Amino acid sequence: MHFGILGAGSIGCYVGGMLAAGGEKVTMVGRPAMANRLAAGMDMTRYDGLARELDPNSIDFSTSARALARCDTILVCVKSGDTEEAGRTLLEAGVEGATIVSLQNGISNADQLRVLAPECTVLAAMVPFNVARIGESRFHRGTEGTLVIEGDGPDAETSGEIARRLSQAHIAAATASDIKSVLWGKLAMNLNNAVNVLSGLPLKAQLSQRAYRLVLAASVREALAAMQAGGINPAKIGKVRPQIIPAVVSLPDWLFRLVAANMLKIDEEARSSMAEDLDAGRKPEIDWLNGEIVRLGLRTGIATPVNAKLSQMVNRAFAEGKSPNLSGAELLRKVGL
Length: 337
Ligand SMILES: NC(=O)c1ccc[n+]([C@@H]2O[C@H](COP(=O)([O-])OP(=O)(O)OC[C@H]3O[C@@H](n4cnc5c(N)ncnc54)[C@H](OP(=O)(O)O)[C@@H]3O)[C@@H](O)[C@H]2O)c1
Prior knowledge:
Rossmann fold, 2 domains, four-stranded mixed sheet
């Protein structure tokens, strides 16, 4: 197996770097700025102290997607807004017959890649853990969890082999026959991104305030209602079933601190990835997260005003390049609660 990484950013560099450090053949494709950062080598670290490093000679990095033509397993690690360009790039690079795995958040990226690269087998996947770049070239995985790859029907053997190689490289991975449930379960967990961006606060400070959590509860409640109407049963990702999130996050602060102590075990300064995208001037993934709930609501006849308003406000924040820094009470009012 020759792995290709399309989109060497946080996830791409961590997964690609760990696979390469584990002895797999890996070609990474990314931007010139990342090529410069990795010129002196790269490090991969994990919450529990597991660490690997690669010297420059062990990194096969290219800024041209043509390098992917020699890969048979390509992991797409670009943000959802870049999927279309990534799919076209694969086509132009002459990638044919490869297995493409979307390691992206959201629901529709794999479907979009299937349309753009009809000669390839495309598999959806769910990455449960966070990765952040620290300094120039260290990629730090902050949380645990098992990566899940679509593994249904004729593709089960291929996805099983990819999962086995990832696991061997210390990225625990498994396959699932119902990947849509897994993707929707992860999406429910991602809905706090929007609230965090609009608060302008670190995650811990934001989640510690009930008013923000009530907005999150309303957003998740709408998501669950739309999923139920659409016949979707969101899978449990991590320790909490999506169905109980609204009740848990609606608890008074003192009780929430007791019951959900794990949710607050976060670095004081940690922010959501969408808040980091805002700071870095990147595009938001909001249309693939809360926006996906709004579209599902339209298809199933379920009203999703909170998610629609959150999407609109986040898009405005990105257009203005800054968070509106809303208090919990202000945010509750603005989403109509
Ligand atoms: N980071 C996490 O903790 C995490 C966890 C779970 C899931 N995810 C999901 O994983 C996906 C990737 O997230 P990420 O945080 O790794 O994003 P990221 O750090 O922004 O990495 C994506 C990289 O791909 C580059 N890129 C985009 N289009 C490209 C192209 N056509 N050719 C070459 N390079 C290209 C981007 O460059 P530019 O920025 O210059 O465009 C960026 O460097 C997202 O869907 C995210 O939601 C992330």
